[in-house]
Design goal:
2 strands, 11 helices, mainly alpha, 3% strand, single chain, two-stranded antiparallel ribbon, 287 residues
């Protein structure tokens, strides 16, 4: 089993991807899966599993950073995990039964949908910027309040909790099948719909995703260790040996970036990138 040193470039790429993921609350696998499929020509099933394992390292690093900020709403997180974890297990099982071409198509269509939803939520936020009355009412009527490690208060209310649970279940299933969906749907529900302050939404999302991805990745790890031949296992190891330290570093830098980046520009950029990557994936299916 040989490690491929020519994959060194995955280290800096992983740092950048993890920084974007941790600062925006978007799952890093949404970037890694297409990279592995298109750039490294991996089978979609292998690409998804490798992306999940990589994301687990990055989100775990980011979780440590966010725990220090005291921005995680653990009550909300546990509520969502009750739905995301069991559906992630189901998604992992059925994901292994789906043909690679279909899996790639589902992935491409899925991230285009998520990109469109994020872009639409940004447009809605832009239209609501001048609603000062609504903002005042929101400040006076709230159910939850978190105080971060700097003493700053975040007041918010979790709206439409049933819809949040449905998103957690659907997102968990998608994480198990195609490695993406949970963080993105939570971002849409918490930030766009409920107006939860982005720092709280991102930190809580990271907490939920870490545990869900850990559960979802167990099935893929088992498959790699029991069914993969030596060449395939060596290829996966060659990737992770560069991506794992990269996402660990990026996971620590992401929360710092989150405080400095304009939220609207970050959301627009990520949503357009999703649509572009999804389009490229679907285009490669037709050619």
């Amino acid at each position: 089993m040989e490690i491929s040193p020519e994959l060194w470039y995955l280290l800096p790429v992983s740092i950048i991807i993890a920084m974007i993921a941790m600062s925006s609350g978007i799952g890093g696998a949404v970037f890694f899966s297409p990279l592995f499929m298109l750039g490294l020509k991996l089978d979609p099933t292998i690409a998804v599993g490798t992306a999940l394992i990589t994301e687990l390292f990055g989100f775990s690093s980011g979780l440590i950073a966010y725990v220090k900020t005291k921005l995680i709403d653990y009550k909300l997180g546990m509520n969502l995990l009750m739905f995301s974890v069991p559906f992630a297990i189901l998604g992992s099982y059925f994901g292994n039964e789906i043909p690679p071409v279909a899996l790639k198509a589902i992935f491409g269509a899925g991230i285009i949908f998520i990109g469109v939803q994020l872009f639409s939520s940004w447009r809605k936020e832009e239209r609501e910027k001048n609603e000062t009355e609504r903002e005042k009412e929101f400040e006076e009527n709230y159910e939850s309040c978190l105080i971060d490690n700097t003493g700053k208060e975040y007041k918010y209310t979790i709206c439409n909790k049933d819809m949040g649970r449905i998103f957690a279940a659907v997102g968990g299933a998608f994480v198990g099948m195609i490695s993406v969906g949970l963080a993105e749907l939570q971002e849409y529900h918490l930030v766009a719909k409920c107006k939860v302050p982005p720092p709280v939404a991102v930190a809580t999302s990271v907490f939920v995703v870490v545990i869900t991805v850990f559960v979802a990745s167990l099935g893929h790890i088992y498959k790699f260790t029991t069914h993969a031949d030596k060449q395939m296992f060596g290829e996966i190891l060659s990737i992770i040996i560069f991506t794992a330290p990269g996402v660990i570093i990026g996971g620590q830098l992401g929360p710092m970036l989150q405080k400095k980046m304009p939220e609207d520009k970050m959301k627009v950029g990520v949503s357009l990138l999703f649509i572009l990557v999804g389009g490229i994936l679907l285009f490669t299916l037709a050619n």
